[in-house]
């Protein structure tokens, strides 16, 4: 009898603790129910999983990120919002890249400044990206700002530190922000030569445990480099590689010059000032030089993160898909969308639009890959053309619409990227770049196999059940 009483008390305490744990911070309904089930059904293991995956950032840290001053950019955003509103109200031909609704959405959701006359180079190959990046770093004369998810201590990572150290000795201001989870193989001694030379290195939003941050969610997935305020890189490539993971040779990276560099610089400043306990940076003309208006590309740089009230990148993706009249082609390492994105793609396919999704067969995250299968099955059944890339780990993140518009950057097409991690994306209004990305998509198709409705019907029942089960974890993956 007493054993039953003890068990009931334990169950009651576990249920009460689970409810308090989950509801002490706001989260969406799907994630709330998912975590309640995990904590109730797995009394001990569930709390361990929650410690790693479920804890949110403190309100203080989120408020700090949300209230960072944007160095005069907010005033420019306000004037652009007014100009777009006047243009839409007048019914006149829009000067805003032919997509005023998308421009306005991104201005409202993230204050994403629209910039023109940018020069953009698309880089699809890792070696090509590394060569271009190091060339620009060697040419730096005033400052180098790097924000990275993963920096590996391989030959490339070591060469990076050596080069940054050399530039710091020459008097160049060097600042590096890195994510402790993505760059978990780094030690403090890795950065010692750079720090001793006067460079500054900060882990992104470090905890009281310093580098030992046990939180797996809320990672800084942004990959940004700014050199002298004139050249910038952003996209999907990390710096270096490791034999412990599948090698990534195919991704999409941007090299930018022009007005958009200031947007990336402002993003770095906000993230640096949130992470750095001392030696914060402030506006100086040398960090924001006047851009050489030599390019022809119009674009918006959009940030995403858990501090936002709106999921800015996801809203941009939804609006971008809604613009489609002929084609929506998507590449992503993982495909775990929420219902709104899934419905948008199915609606487009049912409207006769050519919707294509390409994902890799081989990835570094088996559970995410399994959850991806569930959503691909839904899309195939709805008439979407799905391709599975065979030639390694395809890491490219891109949406191409009607050979006119392009979205690319760090976010995967999944819930984690839209809600849980800090991401950055470029929405590009340039037919030439969109067509170039489209050609690369077609080239990738030669290394991919089509996944059809016939293939879906041949799938073993056990495999389908596995995908269904993995999908249950989508709200907390």
From TrEMBL:
EC number of this enzyme: 2.7.8.-
Organism expressing this protein natively: Lacticaseibacillus jixianensis
Signal peptide: none
Keywords: Cell membrane, Lipid biosynthesis, Lipid metabolism, Membrane, Phospholipid biosynthesis, Phospholipid metabolism, Repeat, Transferase, Transmembrane, Transmembrane helix
Membrane topology: Multi-pass membrane protein
Name used for this protein in its record: Cardiolipin synthase
PANTHER family (UniProt xref): CARDIOLIPIN SYNTHASE, PHOSPHOLIPASE D
Compartments it resides in: Cell membrane
TM segment ranges: 34-53
Positions of the PLD phosphodiesterase domain: 216-243, 390-417
SMART domains: PLDc (SM00155)
Domain of life from the UniProt record: Bacteria
Primary enzyme class: transferase
């Amino acid at each position: 009898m007493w054993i039953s009483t003890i068990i009931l008390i334990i169950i009651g305490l576990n249920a009460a603790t689970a409810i308090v744990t989950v509801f002490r911070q706001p989260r969406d309904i799907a994630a709330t129910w998912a975590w309640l089930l995990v904590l109730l059904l797995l009394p001990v293991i569930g709390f361990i999983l929650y410690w790693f995956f479920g804890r949110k950032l403190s309100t203080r840290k989120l408020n700090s990120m949300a209230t960072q001053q944007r160095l005069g950019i907010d005033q420019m955003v306000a004037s652009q919002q007014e100009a777009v509103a006047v243009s839409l109200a007048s019914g006149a031909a829009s000067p805003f890249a032919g997509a005023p609704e998308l421009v306005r959405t991104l201005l409202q959701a993230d204050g994403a400044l629209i910039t023109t006359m940018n020069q953009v180079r698309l880089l699809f190959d890792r070696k090509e990206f590394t060569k271009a990046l190091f060339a620009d770093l060697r040419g730096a004369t005033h400052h180098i700002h790097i924000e990275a998810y993963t920096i590996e201590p391989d030959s490339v990572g070591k060469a990076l530190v050596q080069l940054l150290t050399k530039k710091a000795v020459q008097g160049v201001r060097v600042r590096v922000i890195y994510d402790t989870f993505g760059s978990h193989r780094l030690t403090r001694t890795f950065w010692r030569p750079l720090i001793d030379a006067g460079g500054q290195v900060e882990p992104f939003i470090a905890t009281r445990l310093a580098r030992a941050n046990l939180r797996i969610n809320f990672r800084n997935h942004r990959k940004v480099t700014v050199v002298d305020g004139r050249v910038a890189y952003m996209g999907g490539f990390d710096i270096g590689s490791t034999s412990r993971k599948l090698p990534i040779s195919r991704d999409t990276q941007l090299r930018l010059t022009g007005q958009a560099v200031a947007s990336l610089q402002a993003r770095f400043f906000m993230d640096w000032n949130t992470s750095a306990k001392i030696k914060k940076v402030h506006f100086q003309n040398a960090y924001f030089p006047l851009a050489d208006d030599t390019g022809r590309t119009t674009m918006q740089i959009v940030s995403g993160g858990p501090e936002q009230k709106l999921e800015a990148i996801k809203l941009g993706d939804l609006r971008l898909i809604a613009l489609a009249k002929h084609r929506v082609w998507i590449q992503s390492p993982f495909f775990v969308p929420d219902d709104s994105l899934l419905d948008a793609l199915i609606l487009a396919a049912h409207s006769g639009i050519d919707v294509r999704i390409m994902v890799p067969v081989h990835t570094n995250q088996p559970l995410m890959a399994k959850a991806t299968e569930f959503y691909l099955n839904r899309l195939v059944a709805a008439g979407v053309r799905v391709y599975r890339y065979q030639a390694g780990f395809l890491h490219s993140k891109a949406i191409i619409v009607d050979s006119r518009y392009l979205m690319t950057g760090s976010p995967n097409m999944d819930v984690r990227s839209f809600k849980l991690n800090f991401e950055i994306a470029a929405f590009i209004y340039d037919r030439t770049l969109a067509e170039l990305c489209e050609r690369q998509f077609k080239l990738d198709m030669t290394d991919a196999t089509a996944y059809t409705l016939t293939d879906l019907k041949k799938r073993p029942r056990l495999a389908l059940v596995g995908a269904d089960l993995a999908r249950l974890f989508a709200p907390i993956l």
